[in-house]
């Protein structure tokens, strides 16, 4: 073979190999960069999720602290005041007895409200007996306090779940109910609890005026309740779908995986 042609062929092969090497390096580098960016995104999402989880945990700690202070400190003082007034009523003249009894009635009402607020902050029924009874207690209180009717259905012998799951589900139902009452002006709420495919399914519907999600979320004030719900669901890997149109109520379907 002509030495010149041989040199050209060798040069061509070398250049081709160098080209393949460069292309291979570029592909490898891009894949590595893509993997790094993907890992960075995943790390950022995990960090945000942990921060959110910590924030919710702190909220519950603060709720418990306030609840205990209300129950033990304020409740104790009001109970002592009630006993003192009761003792005083036996020693006063008839002319002031009515005022003393009225004061006792006010203290009794205040004591009842403090105990109720304490229970609202920390749902002790939830901790002791589980989601089913806690929701029934919440519904009873809401029906007494507002012109609101509930239909609550669930599986027979609904089992206990992980405490984090039960608390998240309870808070979500609270938030949805508050939204239905304050914003949707609903008169009927239906709640259904089922376990489907190893997940707790919550179906929540109301007959309120409905909403447009985009417009609600664009308003910080109006969207805050939904934001709290979405935040809780993201921490526990929950999923949701919903259907709502103006003047046609709303339906949420929430799915929460069970924890070991």
TrEMBL record:
<dbReference type="InterPro" id="IPR003594">
    <property type="entry name" value="HATPase_dom"/>
</dbReference>
<dbReference type="GO" id="GO:0046983">
    <property type="term" value="F:protein dimerization activity"/>
</dbReference>
<keyword id="KW-1133">Transmembrane helix</keyword>
<keyword id="KW-0808">Transferase</keyword>
<dbReference type="InterPro" id="IPR005467">
    <property type="entry name" value="His_kinase_dom"/>
</dbReference>
<keyword id="KW-0812">Transmembrane</keyword>
<feature type="transmembrane region" description="Helical">
    <location>
        <begin position="6"/>
        <end position="29"/>
    </location>
</feature>
<protein>
    <recommendedName>
        <fullName>histidine kinase</fullName>
        <ecNumber>2.7.13.3</ecNumber>
    </recommendedName>
</protein>
<keyword id="KW-0472">Membrane</keyword>
<dbReference type="GO" id="GO:0016020">
    <property type="term" value="C:membrane"/>
</dbReference>
<dbReference type="GO" id="GO:0005524">
    <property type="term" value="F:ATP binding"/>
</dbReference>
<keyword id="KW-0418">Kinase</keyword>
<dbReference type="InterPro" id="IPR050482">
    <property type="entry name" value="Sensor_HK_TwoCompSys"/>
</dbReference>
<dbReference type="GO" id="GO:0000155">
    <property type="term" value="F:phosphorelay sensor kinase activity"/>
</dbReference>
<keyword id="KW-0547">Nucleotide-binding</keyword>
<dbReference type="InterPro" id="IPR011712">
    <property type="entry name" value="Sig_transdc_His_kin_sub3_dim/P"/>
</dbReference>
<dbReference type="Pfam" id="PF07730">
    <property type="entry name" value="HisKA_3"/>
</dbReference>
<dbReference type="InterPro" id="IPR036890">
    <property type="entry name" value="HATPase_C_sf"/>
</dbReference>
<keyword id="KW-0067">ATP-binding</keyword>
<keyword id="KW-0902">Two-component regulatory system</keyword>
<keyword id="KW-0597">Phosphoprotein</keyword>
<dbReference type="Pfam" id="PF02518">
    <property type="entry name" value="HATPase_c"/>
</dbReference>
<feature type="domain" description="Histidine kinase">
    <location>
        <begin position="65"/>
        <end position="260"/>
    </location>
</feature>
């Amino acid at each position: 073979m002509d030495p010149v042609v041989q040199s050209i062929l060798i040069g061509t092969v070398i250049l081709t190999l160098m080209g393949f090497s460069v292309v291979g390096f570029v592909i490898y580098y891009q894949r590595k960069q893509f993997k790094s960016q993907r890992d960075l995104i995943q790390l950022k999402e995990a960090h945000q999720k942990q921060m959110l989880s910590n924030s919710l945990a702190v909220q519950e700690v603060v709720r418990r602290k306030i609840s205990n202070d209300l129950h033990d400190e304020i409740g104790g003082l009001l109970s002592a005041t009630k006993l003192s007034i009761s003792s005083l009523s036996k020693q006063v003249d008839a002319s002031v007895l009515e005022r003393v009894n009225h004061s006792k009635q006010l203290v009794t009402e205040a004591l009842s409200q403090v105990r109720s607020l304490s229970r609202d902050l920390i749902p002790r029924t939830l901790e002791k007996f589980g989601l089913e009874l806690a929701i029934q207690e919440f519904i009873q209180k809401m029906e007494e306090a507002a012109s609101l009717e509930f239909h609550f259905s669930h599986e027979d012998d609904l089992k206990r779940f992980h405490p984090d799951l039960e608390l998240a589900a309870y808070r979500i139902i609270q938030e949805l109910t508050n939204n239905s009452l304050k914003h949707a002006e609903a008169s009927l709420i239906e709640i259904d609890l089922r376990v489907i495919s190893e997940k707790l399914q919550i179906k929540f519907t109301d007959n309120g005026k409905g909403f447009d999600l985009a417009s609600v979320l664009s308003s910080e004030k109006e969207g805050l309740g939904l934001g709290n719900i979405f935040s809780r669901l993201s921490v526990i890997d929950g999923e949701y779908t919903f259907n709502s149109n103006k003047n046609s109520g709303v339906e949420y379907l929430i799915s929460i995986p069970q924890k070991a």
